[in-house]
Amino acid sequence: MAGSHEDEIYSTMFTSLKHPVRRKILRMLASKPMTFMEMVEELGVSSPNLTYHLESLGELISKMDNDRYKLSSFGVATVGAMKGIEEVKTEPKRSSAAFTWKIVSTAFLIAVVLLASFAALQFNSINDLTTAQQSLSEQIQRLQTYGAGSDKVLSFFKNVTKLDTTVYTVSLDDNEVVWRTDIGGVSEETLKYTLKSNFNNLNIDMRFRNNHFSRYDLHMIESTPMFSQTQPSDVLQNAKFNLGRYKAYSGDDYLTQMSNILDTVTRVENDQELIDGNLKLQISTLAGTVKFSWMYTDNEIDYQTKGLQMIFQNNILTTMTDGYFLYTVGNTNLAVSREQAIEIAKNHVKTLTYNIEGQQVSGFTVADEPISVQLVPHTRGNSVALVPYWYVELSLNQIYAGGRNVVTVGIYADTSKVSDVQMLSTSTSTETTG
Q1: In this structure, are residues 297 and 279 in contact, taking their beta carbons and an 8 Å threshold?
Q2: Using one digit for the tens of pLDDT, what is the confidence trace for 317-340?
Q3: What does each C-alpha distance from 53 to 21, 37, 107 come to in angstroms?
């Protein structure tokens, strides 16, 4: 139907305008058509990275017969909207409300340009136009609803991490909202803060999904943070206090079971593992870093993504993530064994043709023994439901352009279907796991 097609284009436009690399691609193609390699060199990104962004641009771009990419009519309309927005002088963001108003204004401007494009191309009937306007209205409503707000962030600083915000000047450096169509259309907001004082500076990255806390990353630039109360010298006690405060902040019921299982721990040891029903707690230590990881477990499969994690470096909470509230378990069907996954991966690579630096390459061979084989449950399609997923990493028998000497193969363990293949260099392959 025309209405669903327009909705897809709207979603692509919103997603594209929120990512700086995709905005740059649109600007480049507005000047002239370009080949894949010309864009790689101009952007300074890897080929897989560019491929991902080109696929995300969807119907905003098209590929010509001479292998050059150009803007589609919708891409031209999008660039027109970008230019209109960039000509408007705005004050620096001071609050979540100001940011939301800016996004709403942007949404209306995009709507005007896109609807004009549809009219010019005679793509819409009156009924289609009404549907498109209703869809846009729903998008704007979501934008206004999902902002985390400065109060919620500052409350996390004060009440969970116990940072002494009275001695810091807190400034919001960046705020971005996107819809993650790969995980069920979740609204994802990322915020970057700088905390400055006379004694030290901190950078903090925050992430909220559907207005629920999702991630906290602390980067210490100078010295250690200043807290509003004395921190426990014991990392286990520190973890218990932080989890208890997060429970009070969040109010989620699953945190009670997590607290209960942590309370049974009397001292921190490496490679500890405790299970309470479908909840597993793993504790690991390495050179001053202690990691506490809670996760859903079933049928001997650990669904790490549906979990909560706290990482302490020298007894300071530097990372905290929570995906337990968001993800669900799709199934626990492990139809493919570890050995079968390795064979499926090897056989797939033998028949693989892969684009490396703009060249189609085939005839790959791999080492007999895999580098690693991990069972990492993964989402499938536009969903937050996790299903068993093998991640197999193999050594290539030669080094290809860009230093690529490793191939990774993702296989759904309930269907044996190969989902994703990436050619990587040894230096980057470990970054993709998990």
Answers
A1: yes
A2: 999 999 999 999 999 999 999 999
A3: 8, 14, 21
Structure tokens at 244: 């208890």
pLDDT in tens, 342-364: 999 999 999 999 999 999 999 99
Residue 366 sits in the same domain as residue 217: no
Pick from 145, 170, 202: which residue ends a domain? 145
Record the tokens describing residue 72, joined without a space. 């589609």
Position 434 pLDDT exceeds 50: no
pTM comes to: 0.65
- DSSP E strand stretches across 221-358: 272-276, 279-286, 289-298, 301-313, 316-322, 328-329, 354-356
What 3-state DSSP class applies to 379?
strand
Q: What is the rounded distance in angstroms from the CA atom of residue 240 to the CA atom of residue 314?
A: 16
H/E run at residue 340: helix 338-350
- Alpha carbon separation from 387 to 12, 392, 412 (Å, rounded): 26, 16, 7
Tell me the two tokens of residue 71: 């803007």
pLDDT in tens, 32-76: 999 888 888 888 888 777 887 888 888 888 888 888 889 888 788
Position 282, amino acid: Q
Domain boundary among 329, 357, 373: 329
Looking at the fold, whether 269 and 234 belong to one and the same domain comes out as yes
Contacts 24+ apart (CB under 8 A), 97-103: 97/147, 99/147, 99/175, 100/143, 100/144, 100/147, 103/143, 103/177
Residue 137: what pLDDT? 47
Residues 289 and 243 in one domain: yes
Q: Which residues contact 126 (CB under 8 A, 6 or more apart)?
A: none
How many domains are there within the chain? Answer: 3
Residue 222 in tokens = 């100078």
Q: Are residues 186 and 312 in the same domain?
A: yes
